[in-house]
Amino acid sequence: MTPGAQPNCASGVQNQDMEKVARSVAHCEIKFLKMSEIGVRVAEHYNSLQEKGLEERTKSRIFYLRNFNNWIKSMLIGDILQKVKADGARDISVLDIGCGKGGDLLKWKKGDISHLVCTDIAGTSIEQCQQRFDSMNQRRNFHRHNFPSFSAEFITADSTKTRLKSLYKKENTFFNIVSCQFAFHYCFESYSQVDQMLQNASECLKPGGYFIGSTTDSCEIVKRLKASDDLSYGNDVYRITFNEKDKFSLFGAQYNFHLTEVVDCPEFLVYFPALIEIAKKYDLEFVFKTRFDDYFNECTKNADSRKLNDARQLLGRMQALETFPPFEEKDLASALPEDYKNAKDELEKLQSEGESCRKIGTLSLAEWEAATLYVVFAFRKLPKGVKRKRDDIEDSEEQARKQ
Ligand SMILES: C[S@@+](CC[C@H](N)C(=O)[O-])C[C@H]1O[C@@H](n2cnc3c(N)ncnc32)[C@H](O)[C@@H]1O
């Protein structure tokens, strides 16, 4: 298993610098940016995307990238479900913010949850998500499957500008997990939108529950911009275009993201140190932020043998990597030989070391470059009482330093 390339993790922006700025974010008066109509554009874009059948999807240039991204989400969701179950949670409730057309419904079903609230800014996507959920249940009844079933509700709302709590069917809705997959970056348009998003993520989350997601890696995005000769960079799979190269505001640092066939929208750099600071306001404690390539390695190379086995089997079942060299009757996803140079080198290396493998799993370099623009993250809602104690400890440490 070796993806097309393994870019360096070094970021263009120093983490320490980012943390310094983040500290100032927490204390300075934050200027609220004017609300723009970007949300409307984003909703229109996702509403206009056509649902494609399986045959169409397999012909897509980014078939494996999409499967790979789905695999990453499956691993993250599986991991967190395991944690909340180990903490003793039963009848698990989940909020999926920016659920789209319901790409994660099956994952929640397999995770044996009890209730799911799906919300998205795009009304057509929510309708399609609900249809998908209904037909999933019909299939279950028809085949008399023993698959667990869960209840669900569907809400069209801008999670960066609306308080979701007032829209849930039951007043006392609480979640074990809040998930925001490939959507969090949209809230970094302004401070108030990040704030509203985090309030939504946290206020109905049970103490000890998790806020998880996948989003863009601003360090990597800026690093590639700095390395580029102009304001735009990418390959035949993705393209990122900025208006400027040197100055980025904490919020509203906009660029256009194009991912072939699926995304063409304004997005915003997610400034993680600021996010971590604002999250504290809502009792959300930062747990981890891991680049997709590191997370892939964690799951497939550095885990215990059972997890490793599960992860590898799932990679195969989800067709999350492309077979190189391809089977006779198949074409590779990319026609460019350089897209498979790393895979070819890796295979030759393995063979020269005496391994008997004749094929390996990979992603074309162009797809791998797109996959490595992302991170998975997790925050945990502090159990009641812990925040107060932490604040007290920090205060007394501060006082001790002054003395
Ligand atoms: C790339 S799609 C991801 C969909 C789904 N989470 C998945 O992983 O398949 C991003 C989704 O975020 C939604 N979105 C963008 N801005 C949003 C906002 N302000 N509030 C709620 N949803 C939003 C879009 O409509 C779109 O469905």
> What is the highest CATH level, the class of the largest domain?
Alpha Beta
The distinct bound ligands, ions and cofactors come out as: S-adenosylmethionine
CATH-derived architecture of the largest domain: 3-Layer(aba) Sandwich
Strand order of the largest sheet: 3-2-1-4-5-13-10
Largest sheet features: 7 strands, mixed
The radius of gyration over CA amounts to 22 Å
Helix % is 40-55%
**Topology as a string of helices (H) and strands (E):** HHHHEHEHEEHEHEEEEHEHHEHEHEH
Query: What form results from the Cα inertia axes?
Result: globular
Q: Give the number of domains.
A: 2
Q: What's the name of the CATH homologous superfamily of the largest domain? A: Vaccinia Virus protein VP39
Low-confidence sequence ranges:
1-15, 21-35
Strand count: 13
What is the SS-derived class? alpha/beta
What is the typical, i.e. mean, pLDDT?
Answer: 88
CATH topology of the largest domain: Rossmann fold
GO molecular function, one term: RNA binding
Coiled coil: 333-360
InterPro entries: mRNA_G-N7_MeTrfase_dom (IPR004971), mRNA_G-N7_MeTrfase_euk (IPR016899), RG7MT1 (IPR039753), SAM-dependent_MTases_sf (IPR029063)
Family: Belongs to the class I-like SAM-binding methyltransferase superfamily. mRNA cap 0 methyltransferase family.
